[in-house]
Amino acid sequence: MKYALIALALVAISANGLQAAPAAKPIVGNSNAKIDISADSLQADLNAKSVTYTGNVIVTQADMKLRANSVKVTTVNDKADKVLASGNVVVDSPKSGIVTGDNGVYSIVPRTVVMTGNVVLKKDKNVVRGTQLTVNLATGQAVLGGGVKSQTPGSTQGGRVQGVFLPNSQ
Q1: Which residue stretches of 15-142 are H helix?
Q2: Is 169 a domain residue?
Q3: How wide is the angle at C-alpha 1 spanned by C-alphas 136 and 9, nearest 5°?
Q4: Could you give the number of structural domains in the chain?
Q5: For residue 76, what are the domain limits?
């Protein structure tokens, strides 16, 4: 579980400057920093080998903060396997900006993070929007997709990634 916040928070690192990290450099974080989790309730399921935090979940590690309605951690062979954050997922880092989405899944063994739903990456006044963000933490590569274009005539929703960049912002 010690990589849970790092993984989801590293989505924000990939948004540093709103561009993916170079492929040659893997994304790393302070995985040794303590992790604090607070929530309104916790439910452990020994049969499913999972722990679910619900209600205003806040996960903090160093200067990274994850907020969500629910965070579930599943295990395989007594080791964390997946971290699933759902409902108003927000990953905030003072250095990297803010990433929001409806859901986030960190798969620990392949070291991938997938944010889905209404994904928005903000750094200063720069904003990028899409429906699915996939980050490979081993390679540092990130892909933001626009999703399926709406079938409603005249609709402009979905189908494309959108970005607004201000050249003079930091």
Answers
A1: none
A2: no
A3: 45
A4: 1
A5: 4-164
